């Protein structure tokens, strides 16, 4: 699946950049990102396929078009425009997969949590009240809310432990 490949690629890029910028050990970074060290090195030494090059071009043009129309086009209109621009017939499902935000799933999960644990439990009369509540919840989420998938640590504790 293309979006899974893109997400995996982001993990590899993150490992590479953190190693280069902060000199963190690759083994630790791979472990943190839940990727095999051997697959990271395979990714480093890979050669980009024609399909990947074409996907990069489609994605670049899609993002440019999306920004040009101020985000009002969905994947169907983007597909029509890309097909015309590149003079080729791409399937709308391919464009949809490429346009999916890489971290959108995680953000949807976070916003689902914030709605359940904060927004739906209170009534807000002004924008400022809502903004203040969101700010307070984000601080709570990062500093006090224990995460099962982070071995019972808060987000900040896990980050500090990982970087230590």
- Main sheet? none
Shape: flat
Number of helices: 9
Q: Could you spell the SSE succession in H and E letters? A: HHHHHHHHH
Quote the beta fraction.
Answer: under 5%
Number of domains: 3
| Low-pLDDT segments | none
Mean pLDDT: 86
Ends: how far apart? 35 Å
Q: Structural class, from secondary structure content?
A: mainly alpha
- Structural Rg: 20 Å
Q: Give the helix proportion (percent range).
A: over 70%
Strand runs, count: 0
Explain this structure to me?
There is one protein chain. The protein is mainly alpha-helical. Helices cover about 70% and strands about 0% of the residues. It has 3 domains: about 1-45; about 50-100; about 105-164, no CATH class. The chain has helices at about 1-20, 25-30, 35-45, 50-70, 75-85, 90-100, 105-115, 125-145, 155-164.
Short description:
The chain has 164 residues and is mostly helical. The chain has 3 domains: 1-46; 48-101; 104-163, no CATH class.
Structural features:
Transposase_IS3/IS150/IS904; flat; single chain; Integrase catalytic domain-containing protein; 164 residues; RNaseH-like_sf; HTH-like_dom; mainly alpha
């Amino acid at each position: 699946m293309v979006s899974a490949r893109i997400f995996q690629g982001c993990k590899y890029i993150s490992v590479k950049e953190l190693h280069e910028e902060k000199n963190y050990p690759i083994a630790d970074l791979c472990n943190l990102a839940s990727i095999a060290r051997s697959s990271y090195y395979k990714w480093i030494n890979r050669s980009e396929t024609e399909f990947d090059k074409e996907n990069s071009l489609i994605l670049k043009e899609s993002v440019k078009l999306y920004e040009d129309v101020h985000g009002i086009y969905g994947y169907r209109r983007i597909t029509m425009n890309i097909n015309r621009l590149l003079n080729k017939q791409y399937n709308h499902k391919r464009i949809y997969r490429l346009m999916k935000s890489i971290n959108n799933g995680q953000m949807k999960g976070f916003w689902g949590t914030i709605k359940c644990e904060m927004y739906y439990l209170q009534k807000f009369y002004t924008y400022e009240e809502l903004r203040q509540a969101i700010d307070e919840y984000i601080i709570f989420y990062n500093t006090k809310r224990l995460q099962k998938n982070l071995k019972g640590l808060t987000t900040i504790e896990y980050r500090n432990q990982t970087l230590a």
